[in-house]
What we know:
The protein has one domain (4-273): Spore Coat Polysaccharide Biosynthesis Protein SpsA, Chain A, CATH 3.90.550. By secondary structure, it is α/β, with parallel strands linked by helices. 32% of the residues lie in helices and 26% in strands. The protein starts with a strand and ends in a 5-residue tail after the last helix. It has helices at 35-45, 60-65, 70-76, 86-94, 108-114, 116-119, 141-152, 213-218, 230-240, 258-273, and strands spanning 4-8, 29-30, 33-34, 50-55, 96-101, 124-127, 131-134, 155-161, 171-179, 182-190, 201-209, 243-247, 251-254.
Amino acid sequence: MIKKCLFPAAGYGTRFLPATKAMPKEMLPVVNKPLIQYGVEEALEAGLNGIAIVTGRGKRALEDHFDISYELENQIRNTDKEKYLVGIRKLLDECTFSYTRQIEMKGLGHAILSGRSLIGDEPFAVVLADDLCVNPEGDGVLEQMVKLYKQFRCSIVAIQEVDPQETSKYGVIAGEMIRDDIYRVHSMVEKPKPEDAPSNLAIIGRYILTPDIFDLIEQTEPGKGGEIQITDALMKQAKDGCVLAYKFKGQRFDCGSAEGYIDATNYCFENFYKKGQL
Length: 278
């Protein structure tokens, strides 16, 4: 079954300049915890303890975060501040972390392909850390998708309805509804203009992919923006087999935008931090 989760984390985070000039966008804190830690916790809750991270130049803070800090931990040992490290220590104890670099920024498809040596020939999940997903009333988004994979055994993308005027920000799908929350994908378009969008069902940063996706990405020519798009590779997979789109339960915050980041911070402060859950 699925045991590995890939985090593409090599991007420049230009929407958050100048903050991301020297700090990875994945390390931006939502209250007192960096974005990528939320994603790793979601993966572990879904039973995925093999964490593979595709990094780039200037991203050493990611590796340092998921490591022991001897000086800091010695300094706060036996004080009430130790409680703040309980969450990260759990991840270090229960997960294994591996890293590789994406040498050139050639799109999400290329970033996923760069992680091939870390994943091997097995199905895996992909999390884009700047999409923060929460579902306090039930399973996390990845856990929902892993359960679906056990049933259907094919690639799955998470989707949500968006304002039709915002389709140019997303990959957008159209397909046959096979359940009120599941579609069999027939078409998939990367960042279409509103008048060209096949629907308002947008892909967000959660995927489960079967290992043949790597060969399909290798065969994919650069598309929108001159980048190798994962949507183009998934479209090939959908034509030859089956790709499902899942309308997940929960809430998603686009922390790549200032507005979404502030919304996520306010939500986590009110719903988690004040209740002692952060």
